[in-house]
Amino acid sequence: QTTLNPTLNNDVEIHQNDLPKARFWEAMDITQWEGFWFGSGLLKPAITFKSSFQAQGDDVFLASTMKTGTTWLKSLSLCIMKNRDNFKHEHDMLTVENPHFHIPTIESTLYSTKPLTINIYDASTPRLLHTHLPYTVLPDSIKNSSCKIVYMARNPKDTLISMWHFFNSFLRQDQESFPLEKAVDCFCSGVHQYGPFLDHVLEYWTESQKRPCKVLFVKYEDMKSDPKGEVSRIAEFLGRPFGDEREVDEVLWRCSLERLKNLEVNKSGSILLNVPNTSYFRKGEVGDWKNYLTSDMADRIDQTIGLKLEAFGLFL
Ligand code: A3P
């Protein structure tokens, strides 16, 4: 059986030693591969995944870079694909475990603190999986089979602020947060976990334009401003359209930030090593960056990332 245990693959070890390295926010070592930066521990699983994963035609892949609303997308997709029939029996998978347990992020599964419900090579179909990996490094079997991809994107400034809070939440009380000024520099130069952000977003955007039946591109901001319209679009794309508006409302309510944040399963514990379940839920506001970034910082992000996204009609 194919395995994601990268220690079994010596070629990966040799390959990794030759790759560029950097330190990300004084928090972790990152390595550059195929134009993107990966936490060093995630690189081997990513390489092994790319070379060995066999997609099935009915797989559903959720994709996103960090802090763009992955948890929300996982919850909604879980409800659309697997959870909906449970509601009438008063059962809701979201109350049993954190969304990241039900839909594992493939390259992070090695760090799971619990045996996941899904053995990704032997799960009940359709398999529902997530990755933070850029489109470029997805296995050919995902790109070439009929499986579908839903990508969640978010405006760069809110993504950065969300990322900054996320990493700050792991600091001890006596540790100072990483200087925001430097975080902006790293973000603009693309040297951060799963960066460059711009390339990550544009790769999936371009693919969604070329193959709209294969890749659905969803924006966090659209989800906030038109949740019913957007969640219905996702459900239709996945071939599971809602029967009526009541069903849409129920799924949105079950996946709302307020509800998820206050579920017992999300108030403590962790699915991934060193990542408390609480850290996935914060404010969920569009434009929260205004409370943190100076106009100079905002300008720098606009100049290096924002304007380039705008040229594609994104995040105007
Ligand atoms: P903020 O830090 O801006 O509050 P990810 O899930 O990719 O890690 O992204 C985390 C961001 O999504 C956080 O944003 C978090 O608050 C927000 N989020 C988490 N669950 C959400 C939900 N159910 N609805 C809306 N936003 C949510």
Care to describe what's here?
The protein has helices spanning 10-17, 40-52, 70-83, 93-96, 99-102, 140-144, 156-168, 180-189, 197-210, 220-225, 227-237, 245-254, 257-262, 264-267, 295-310, and strands at residues 21-24, 28-33, 36-39, 60-64, 128-131, 148-153, 215-219, 270-272, 275-276. It has 316 residues and is an alpha/beta fold. Helix 8 (180-189) runs parallel beside helix 15 and helix 11 (227-237) crosses helix 12. The protein binds adenosine-3'-5'-diphosphate. Adenosine-3'-5'-diphosphate is lined by residues 64, 67-72, 75, 158, 162, 165, 255-257, 260, 280-284, 288.
Which keywords apply here?
316 residues; alpha/beta; four-stranded parallel sheet; three-stranded antiparallel sheet; 15 helices; disordered N terminus; binds adenosine-3'-5'-diphosphate
Assembly type: single chain
Low-pLDDT stretches are 1-8
How many β strands by DSSP? 9
> Sheet bearing the most strands, described?
4 strands, parallel
Q: Report the bound ligands by name, code or SMILES.
A: adenosine-3'-5'-diphosphate
What's the SSE pattern? HEEEHEHHHEHEHHHEHHHHHEEH
The residue fraction in helices comes out at: 40-55%
SSE diagram, text form:
Elements: H1 10-17, E1 21-24, E2 28-33, E3 36-39, H2 40-52, E4 60-64, H3 70-83, H4 93-96, H5 99-102, E5 128-131, H6 140-144, E6 148-153, H7 156-168, H8 180-189, H9 197-210, E7 215-219, H10 220-225, H11 227-237, H12 245-254, H13 257-262, H14 264-267, E8 270-272, E9 275-276, H15 295-310
Parallel strand pairs: 4-5, 4-6, 6-7
Antiparallel strand pairs: 1-2, 2-3, 8-9
Helix pairs in contact: 8-15, 11-12
The structure holds adenosine-3'-5'-diphosphate (A3P).
The site of adenosine-3'-5'-diphosphate has 21 residues, from helix 3, helix 7 and helix 13.
